[in-house]
């Protein structure tokens, strides 16, 4: 037996991870394009190529969500099933390589990049009507003010949003795996892509099978409303069959930023501090902005087209804000162009963009989800063959 295999066999595969030292940062420049007139000030960033510090034996698959918690810890969800046997040689029986094992599906990092821990998987989820409720393919993550963690899924039968405590204890769910009732259903979902819990509401972008936003009362779990584009009742057809990533690059899917309905990937739901909410209509290359009414309803405000002529995987995948009280700047993740657009939120003027398509630090392959911490740093994840999370360090307004 090779020596590294002998050593690996002596290590329990579920051994606790010892505390990790904070990594030294390694800042590098980002691609930057200025759109606003010369002299316009805007946030600037560099990429920390040393972030995060994963344990030596763990590996992330497609990282399909990132959220910053109230303590500035950084949560990601990933897809262990997207790793191959050659990626995870240490996890094979018997092990076939010195590294690696899949990280737990839900992983928590300190802001400085230290690995805090992780949890999740079928053993942590309830079984309902004989079906385990853990999603086959995690999608999106949100951490609320109490530190509770929320996520959905876009795999086959993943018609559920799950809510857990920070230490991985199941709290509740919305929807049910393997059951979907279309856009008119008030108690079932259809591949929910994103979730937000704030202001007494749970809002879900629903998502990859359905084409709507749906809201629930956060206390009673009761249905509150459902909305298509322009805050109208949902009328668009649902996806027939399960989603797979080939659908994301279907050349027949032409973006229409003036479409009267959401396209077939409603990708994010992101509220603001001033009672508005952005919804990502990815395949129409737009976000839509709504006002949140006191009764839980939504009122349409405006369209926000981003690189509207883009094809392929299209553009608007996620939205985040600068952390100042007014959330002065709006950040829009653009999957196909591999960049994060910087906008002035009050006017939606495009100021510039950071990043480009690629595989080096500060470049993006299938850019998927973004969020910001209290210092203004941006965290960005990648799916498909990207399979990572990156930290873009805020360096000031220039």
From TrEMBL:
Residues 1-21 form the signal peptide. Keywords: Glycoprotein, Signal. PANTHER family: PEPTIDYL-GLYCINE ALPHA-AMIDATING MONOOXYGENASE. This is Uncharacterized protein.
């Amino acid at each position: 037996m090779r020596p590294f295999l002998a050593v690996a066999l002596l290590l329990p595969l579920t051994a606790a991870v010892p505390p990790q030292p904070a990594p030294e940062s390694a800042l590098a420049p980002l691609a930057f394009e200025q759109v606003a007139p010369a002299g316009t000030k805007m946030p600037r960033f560099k990429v920390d190529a040393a972030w995060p510090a994963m344990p030596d034996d763990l590996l992330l698959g497609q990282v399909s969500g990132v959220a910053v918690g109230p303590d500035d810890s950084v949560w990601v969800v990933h897809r262990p099933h997207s790793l191959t046997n050659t990626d995870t040689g240490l996890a094979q029986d018997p092990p076939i390589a010195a590294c690696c094992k899949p990280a737990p599906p839900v992983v928590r990092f300190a802001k400085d990049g230290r690995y805090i821990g992780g949890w999740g998987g079928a053993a942590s989820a309830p079984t309902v009507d004989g079906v385990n409720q853990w999603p086959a393919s995690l999608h999106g993550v949100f951490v609320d003010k109490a530190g509770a963690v929320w996520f959905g899924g876009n795999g086959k039968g993943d018609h559920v949003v799950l809510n857990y405590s920070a230490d991985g204890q199941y709290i509740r769910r919305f929807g049910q795996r393997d059951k979907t009732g279309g856009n008119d259903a008030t108690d079932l979902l259809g591949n929910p892509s994103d979730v937000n819990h704030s202001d007494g509401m749970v809002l879900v972008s629903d998502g990859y099978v359905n084409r709507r936003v749906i809201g629930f009362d956060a206390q009673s779990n009761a249905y509150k409303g459902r909305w298509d584009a322009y805050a109208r009742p949902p009328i668009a057809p649902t996806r027939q069959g399960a989603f797979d990533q080939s659908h994301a690059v279907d050349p027949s899917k032409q973006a229409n930023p003036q479409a009267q309905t959401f396209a077939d990937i409603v990708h994010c739901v992101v509220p603001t501090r001033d009672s508005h909410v952005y919804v990502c209509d990815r395949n129409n290359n737009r976000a839509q902005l709504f006002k949140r009414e006191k009764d839980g309803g939504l009122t349409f405000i405006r369209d926000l087209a981003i690189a509207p002529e883009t094809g392929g995987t299209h553009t608007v995948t996620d939205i985040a804000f600068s952390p100042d009280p007014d959330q002065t700047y709006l950040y829009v993740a653009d999957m196909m162009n591999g960049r994060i657009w910087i906008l002035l939120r009050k006017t939606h003027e495009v100021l510039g963009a950071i990043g480009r398509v690629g595989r080096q630090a500060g470049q993006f392959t299938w850019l998927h989800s973004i969020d910001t911490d209290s210092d203004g740093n941006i965290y960005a994840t990648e799916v498909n063959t990207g399979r990572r999370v990156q930290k873009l360090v805020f360096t000031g307004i220039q």
